[in-house]
Amino acid sequence: MPPQAGPVVAVGGAVIDRTPAAVKDWAIRTFGTDDKLVLQTGILTILVVWALALGA
């Protein structure tokens, strides 16, 4: 990972590395070239929900 990569990109890379091949293939078939955008959006959504839960 390049030093300029942000935490969301780093977490996304780690998730991709640990995801089974069948799930990766499904995501690519379903989302096409937007698969990484969907992953990053999902990561940000989870982080927001987690932060809201901690703040409550």
Write the layout of secondary structure elements.
Blueprint lengths: L6 H12 L2 H11 L3 H21 L1
Task: Give an overview in words.
The chain has about 55 residues and is mainly α. About 80% of the residues lie in helices and about 0% in strands. It contains 3 helices and no strands. α1 packs across α3 (about 35-55). The protein is globular, with a radius of gyration of 13 Å. The termini are far apart. The mean pLDDT is about 85.
What is this entry, summarized?
The chain is mainly alpha-helical and 56 residues long.
Question: What percentage of the residues does DSSP assign to strands (E)?
Answer: under 5%
**Helicity, in percent?**
over 70%
How far apart, in Å, are the first and last alpha carbons?
A: 34 Å
* N-to-C series of helices and strands: HHH
The overall strand count is 0
Q: Which whole number gives the mean pLDDT? A: 86
The total count of helices amounts to: 3
> Uncertain regions: pLDDT < 50 for 5+ in a row?
none
Structural class: mainly alpha
Largest sheet: none
Rg is 13 Å
Could you say which overall geometry the principal axes of the C-alpha atoms support? globular
Relevant terms:
globular, 79% helix, 56 residues, 0% strand, single chain
